[in-house]
Amino acid sequence: MMFCFTLALEEEQENKLEELYNRYHLDLIRFAHSIVKSSEEAEDIVQEAFIRIFRNIAKIENSTDREAKNFMLITVRRLCYTHLACKRLHLTEPISEEEREPEDDPVWSQFSVKHLQSRMVFIIKGFSQQEQQLLVYGILKKYTYKELANLFGMNEKTVSVKLSRIRKKLRRALEREGE
């Protein structure tokens, strides 16, 4: 697996990625397994995490070991929770890009200019994974607060507040862009 990734890297980055893989691979699998409770799923998640780390190696190549490990743990944790959310919804794959770009939703219909819609998608990609998922399920897929609360393990009021804050965050980002 590592050979395929390292072909596209500079030698210094290749060494860093290989070092991270050798040092933390088993720890990351154990960590993922503690969340998803399946060895095969944990290995798949860690493999996906290293693909993401490969894509972002420049962000961590000059970081300390502790910072790099934290980055990897956060990446694995997010992938685990995304995996579990998809599993609860009986989805076989994470939400695709097409599902992130709404066409008929009234919240988005006011933004009829195509470049503005793509700018919104770009802004949303900068949100945390949980914020993105709340937007997708709460607004695009029209889940109720109760369904969202069950899905994300929160109470309904927390879901309501988070969705409100996410909408405001998106609105402010668009307003800043318009200035």
Number of strands: 0
Sheet/helix structural class: mainly alpha
- The averaged pLDDT comes out at 76
Radius of gyration (Å): 19 Å
Provide the CATH architecture of the largest domain: Orthogonal Bundle
Describe the structure.
By secondary structure, this protein is an all-alpha fold. It has two domains: 87 residues, Rna Polymerase Sigma Factor, Chain: A; 82 residues, Arc Repressor Mutant, subunit A (Orthogonal Bundle), CATH 1.10.10. Helices cover 78% and strands 0% of the residues.
Task: Describe the secondary structure blueprint for this structure.
Elements: H1 2-6, H2 11-36, H3 39-55, H4 57-60, H5 65-88, H6 97-100, H7 106-109, H8 114-125, H9 129-140, H10 145-152, H11 156-178
Labels describing this entry:
single chain, 179 residues, mainly alpha, Rna Polymerase Sigma Factor, Chain: A, Arc Repressor Mutant, subunit A, 2 domains, 11 helices, globular, disordered N terminus
What is this entry, summarized?
This protein has helices at 2-6, 11-36, 39-55, 57-60, 65-88, 97-100, 106-109, 114-125, 129-140, 145-152, 156-178. It is mainly α.
